[in-house]
What does this fold into?
Amino acid sequence: MVLIDSSFLMGMVQRKRRINLDEAMELVGPSKLIVLRECIDEVRRKIPNQKILPILEKLGVEIIDSNLKGPVDDLIVEFAEKNKAIVLTLDLGLKRRLVDRGIPVIYLRAGKKLVLEAGGI
It folds into this structure.
């Protein structure tokens, strides 16, 4: 299971070089793609006119209600820990938190290439 965070969602729609989810899936093999509803809400607050739902639907990303309370990054960490998910993020602060807790992370290295970092290494 691969959990997409808010920063990655925004990167999918805002970056000059669109980030391709296929590139991420090559790192982990066939996996279910999910996003927390709270992440979608955060993206809508930051870029209100962006139509993110049709993009997610086209890519087959499942929207999950976390049923958790708190800041979105905390929800991502907690959800990933409980569900043994790999997190796809562009947020380096969140990446550090996840890796420190032993949670694998896919992130954009040097703004160019997606890489997988296993947590706890």
About this structure: Residues 72-83 form the longest helix (12 residues).
